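Lay summary

Proteins are chains of building blocks that fold into shapes. Our project writes down both the chain and a compact code for its shape. Here are two examples, one after the other.
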Amino acid sequence: MASDQRDILEVLQDELEFIEKGGYGRSVRTPWQSKSTLQDSLTCINYVDPDRTHPCSECHLLQFVSPQHRTEEVPCHFIPLNSEGETIDELELLDNQAKLEREVRAWLQARIKEMEKERAKRTTA
């Protein structure tokens, strides 16, 4: 069960904004280091925490991970992003950053739209 106190809708909106502003581009200071999608943004409950003091089971994103992948080292990398079921883990192996970001962006937009629609229904009910 997630114990992250942040609003999941805001977390997803912030991640979308981060991607749209080029957040996963190579750093000028460390261009040899690639960034890990979701882990290297404020979306991650362990962002800039090398000791990873929060278990992934506390993260909101776990609700999007199928049960068989919830014990992976980085479970959010196993969220099915599209109708083919491609995951961040699979797309990172392809070494195609543009496709990875496109699929994550589309997934975020779809989840955000669903959540906004659901919340709008609750406020009008």
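And here is the second example, written the same way.
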Amino acid sequence: MEEEFRTVDAPPFARRGAVTDEYLRAFRELWSNPDPSFTGEFVRFSDIACDPKPVQRPHPPLWVGGESAPAIRRAARMGDGWFPMPTNPIRPLDTFDRFRVALAEMRGIAEAAGRDPSAIALCVNSSHYLLGKENPNADGQRRSFSGHPEQIAADIAAYRALGVDTLLVRVPGATAAETRESMERFRTEVLPLVG
């Protein structure tokens, strides 16, 4: 939110995308160079130490979240992983086909940037998970990860076939007991169908 940027005296909200891109480049420099230096519009440093270096080499994986056009470009050009949310009202990726289209866009941009699109890890968030009942979106389409166990298992297989390697399962429950019950139903009714 713009108010949050002003409160912490961050760079201008309208430039947040450019700032994020530059911060990602600066992080990589700090984490991978024994004598880091960086000169950008928002970040400048030299003659500093950043130790200890991360265990992951050359640096920890940088996951880019978001499904907007700028977020997809950032993931394609700079991300080690892409984590879109299906609940964005402007660009909902709440069905398999919508996700597939956005993924093709991201992979096309990565390829044009000289990157191997298959090297970008993928995570899908099952925000609309609803076992036993279809959860239609505003267009009346069944949202991914809703419906009968067979439908949810088929969704998991379809996303896996696209190259998704991580599924964040968000199980519903108003109480800890309801959440545990939802988790148990996912384990016993859906996972055996996934293989």
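What can we say about the second shape? The chain has six helices and eight strands.
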